[in-house]
Amino acid sequence: MYAKLFVSFWKIGAFTIGGGYVMIPLMEQEIVDRRKWLSREEFLDYLSLSQAMPGVFAVNMATCIGRRLGGFRGVVAAVAGNIMMPVALILMLAVFFRYFRDNVVVERIFMGLRPAVVALIAAPVFRMAKSAKVCWSNCWIPVVAALLIWLLGVSPVWVILAAIAGGLLYGFVAERHKKEGGSL
Amino acid sequence: MIFLKLFWMFLKIGIFTFGGGYSMVALIQNEVVEKEGWMTAQEFTDILAISQMTPGPVGINTATYAGYTAVVNMGLPVWQGVVGSLLASFAVILLPVVAMMIVYGYLSRRKGNPLVDKMLQVLRLTVVGLIAAAALLLLTRESFGIPGLNLQFITSILIFAAVFYFSLRHRTNPIILILASGLVGLVVYSL
User: Fold this and answer.
1) Burial classification of residue A153, based on how many CB atoms lie within 10 Å of its CB (0-12 exposed, 13-18 middle, 19 or more buried)
2) So where are chain A's domains?
């Protein structure tokens, strides 16, 4: 069982380029269709839990499924399998890229792709804005968060803590309001 | 002690990552570039390029690579860089994995808590701003060239616009976009 968990997540980690959400279809195919470890409903439950919790989505998924199938050791097998290849590959590249960085051809290629990388960070902002349901009444939240970090140099950690506190307060007040409204 | 600092930093980054890999990238960028100055924005952009082109979650890849670069940039030997990168990768997943194991039993039964839902809603909105800030901070002269009518700046803006469009409208695979941009760079700057 541990070996199978390791191999399955090794495959998921090693063959998905582009990270997180690209893994979902492959994961679903491997875990639901091929291994039949989870029903599709369970898989979707874990999916939403993994998205809500802190951390990297794929690793959270590996933790959930590892835990469900093999307890603590299952978690270790699934998570280790998931990140082993990517970490090893990146390490190799990190060590060797330093020697090629000053090469003229490499430098020209990187001059071309750097703006692309920044665009690839900017595009998800708009995609995520859509799924977070940004509208006129709440768009001040992302705008203020971005300005605090970008212009005032506030640490994102504080911004996130403030969002958690503010969100809980908002939820608390909204619940209270609903209950009082119901009793009237 | 660099390793202790690295470990603590990536523990923090792991537990404050909400809403996927790009928010982790934003946190790493803020710590290693803005706060500590362990590498330049340009170096970080290069790391990000390679992290997006190799398999695995972008957040973990960036953590692994940034951990290595931070140590080696201090003039320490390669093997210590390897230790640093493994430490960063381990630290960044440690707390989320522990947290996940704790809530696993709870939430699978009791889903849809209205209080938690509201909090997540606000958090998701905030993360949009967080990633926007990271993108804005990466718009540097080193990566785009000096603003004006020169070859590098104009090429950079065109590449940025094209990649942005294809990524947003057509969800084109990021690797294809990065490789194509690299090729454009090679051709344009070799002329």
Assistant:
1) exposed
2) 2-100, 108-132, 135-184
